[in-house]
Structure formats: structure tokens, C-alpha cells
Write a structure and sequence with these properties.
- This protein has one domain: Skp domain (Protein Binding, DinI Protein, Chain A).
- It has helices at 2-19, 28-34, 36-76, 81-135, 158-164; strands at 23-26, 139-142.
- 76% of the residues lie in helices and 5% in strands.
- A two-stranded parallel ribbon has the order 1-2.
- The chain is mainly α.
- The chain is rod-shaped.
């Protein structure tokens, strides 16, 4: 599969060089890590993850204590077998709720990430398109994604995009 993409890329680059088309590249990771909004969004997401993780750990700890209590009662013979089965079923239901909480937490984190990062990504994509239009690039590749096998540093549009976004570095 990778060989196919490499061949397609080489074919595209060869076609561009024959037609003297202007091709550039950027490093999206460098751009994104330079944006203060990304740092803030990641911080907010980390706080949210921490809250969910703490709540999940509390739920698991509580469930473990209940299982241990049931095992002690069972070992001590203080509960009838029917009552043990009843409490075990209740604990299984609680265990399922812990699993549902974990899945729900992951879903909420993904939704929050999308909510916070999508507008930033849209802004970066607009800046890339603007730089491409303003500088006559037919295509801009992303070297941060590992797609570019070789690129002339003169074709690096990363600084242009960072400037368009107001990043000074």
C-alpha cells in the first residue's frame, strides 16, 4: 500500500516538474504546536480527562470494596446463598455501569476535542489555502504527516502559514 502511495506521489511530482508547477509543503505539526489555542484546548481536554479518570477510579475502588465485602460475608457464612447470588448480580450490574461510564467518558472527550480543535484546524486550513493562492502553489503537501520523501527547503510554506496565522517564531 505504501509503495502505491510513493509511486503516485512520484508521478505527481514528476508531472509538476515537467509542467513547472509550483508545489510547496508545510509541517502541520509544527504549525499546530505553535498555536496558543491548541495548547489551551489540549490543557482543557487534559483537565476533562483527569476528572473522568478520577471519577472512574473512585467507581472502580468502590466496586472492589463491595466485592471484597461480599467475599468476606460469603467466607464468614453470614449470608444465605440466595442473598449472595442476589448481591453478586447487583455488583455485576454496577460493573456494567462502570464500563458504560468509561465508554461515555471517552465519547465525551472525543466530542470535546472535536469541539475545541475543529475551529482551530479550520483556521489553519484556511491559512494554508490563502498562502497557496497568494503564492501560486498548485499543491501544498504536509511533511509532518510523513508523505513527502524529499522537499527543497525553498518550497517550505510553513513560515508563510505561521505568519498568516500571526505566529511569530
Amino acid at each position: 500500500m505504501n509503495k502505491f502511495f510513493i509511486l503516485v506521489f512520484i508521478t505527481i511530482v514528476s508531472t509538476f516538474s515537467l509542467n513547472a508547477q509550483k508545489v510547496g509543503y508545510i509541517n502541520s505539526q509544527e504549525i499546530l504546536t505553535s498555536l496558543p489555542e491548541v495548547k489551551q484546548a489540549n490543557s482543557d481536554i487534559d483537565v476533562m480527562k483527569g476528572m473522568f479518570q478520577k471519577k472512574g477510579e473512585e467507581m472502580v475502588k468502590d466496586l472492589q470494596m463491595k466485592y471484597q465485602d461480599l467475599q468476606q460475608k460469603q467466607a464468614g457464612g453470614t449470608l444465605a446463598p440466595v442473598e449472595i447470588e442476589k448481591q453478586a448480580a447487583t455488583l455485576k450490574a454496577e460493573e456494567a455501569k462502570v464500563g458504560e461510564f468509561e465508554q461515555s467518558s471517552q465519547q465525551k472527550i472525543m466530542e470535546k476535542s472535536e469541539e475545541l480543535l475543529k475551529p482551530i484546524q479550520d483556521r489553519v486550513n484556511k491559512a494554508i489555502k490563502d498562502v497557496a493562492t497568494e503564492n501560486g502553489f498548485l499543491y501544498i503537501f504536509d511533511s509532518g504527516m510523513g508523505v513527502v520523501l524529499y522537499a527543497d527547503p525553498a518550497a517550505d510554506a510553513t513560515k508563510l502559514v505561521k505568519t498568516k496565522l500571526g505566529i511569530t517564531q
